[in-house]
């Protein structure tokens, strides 16, 4: 059974358990398909899933600084593991370290031009296809779809932040003996 068939079967099972609006189901499908793209692209460019995810986090910062420790937090790995990951990605030519201009102890991560060009080059046909898809909708439909997707993105991000905060809280909570 292919990954796509497994995802469809999982959706069918989930639909039997949970009721949701069709737009929400469609968004779940988009999220699953995007994860499949990430997995396939990572494999194609010979990056392990964690490595591909790390490069994605660095690329998505769009000029905002991201250091190895913050990357480790985002990936759920220790600072030492994050340093090893960054070392590996730097040696492979995917990331570079840049010293902070104000605080030389701080390091910011940037993707290399070659990594960005390779990843965006691989994604170009998908981007072109999605851009062409928009022409199938009226301007009003495009605005409504765009609004829904922007608001859904905000809610997904807010939910992820809440999960991250809860996980941090659970990790720092002292263990109590209840005997």
Please state the structural category.
mainly alpha
- Estimated helix fraction: over 70%
Rg? 20 Å
Q: Poorly predicted ranges (pLDDT <50, ≥5 residues)?
A: none
- Quote the distance from N terminus to C terminus: 49 Å
Q: Order of helices and strands, N to C?
A: HHHHHEEHH
Average pLDDT, rounded to a whole number, is 88
Largest sheet: 2 strands, antiparallel
Described by the principal axes of the CA atoms, the overall outline is globular
The side-by-side strand order for the widest beta sheet comes to: 1-2
How many helix segments? Answer: 7
- How is the quaternary structure best described? single chain
- Which range does the strand content fall in? 5-15%
Q: Care to count the β-strands?
A: 2
Structure description:
The chain is mostly helical and 179 residues long. 71% of the residues lie in helices and 6% in strands. It contains seven helices and two strands. The protein has a two-stranded antiparallel ribbon. Helix 1 packs antiparallel against helix 2 (22-44), helix 2 packs across helix 3 and helix 4 packs across helix 5 (79-91). The chain is globular. The model has no long low-confidence stretch (mean pLDDT 88).
């Amino acid at each position: 059974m292919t990954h796509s068939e497994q995802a469809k079967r999982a959706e069918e099972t989930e639909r039997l358990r949970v009721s949701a609006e069709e737009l929400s189901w469609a968004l779940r499908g988009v999220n699953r398909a995007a994860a499949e793209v990430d997995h396939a692209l990572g494999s194609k460019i010979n990056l392990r899933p964690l490595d591909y995810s790390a490069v994605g986090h660095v690329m998505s910062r769009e000029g905002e600084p991201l250091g190895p420790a913050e990357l480790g937090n985002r990936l759920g790995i220790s600072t030492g593991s994050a340093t090893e990951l960054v070392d590996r990605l730097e040696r492979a030519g995917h990331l570079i370290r840049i010293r902070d201009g104000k605080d030389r102890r701080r390091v910011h991560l940037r993707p290399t031009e070659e990594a960005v060009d390779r990843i965006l080059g691989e994604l170009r046909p998908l981007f072109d296809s999605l851009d062409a898809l928009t022409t199938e909708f009226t301007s009003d439909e495009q605005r409504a779809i765009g609004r829904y997707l922007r608001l859904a993105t905000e809610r997904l991000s807010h939910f992820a932040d809440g999960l991250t905060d809860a996980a941090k809280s659970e990790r720092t909570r002292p263990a109590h003996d209840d005997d």
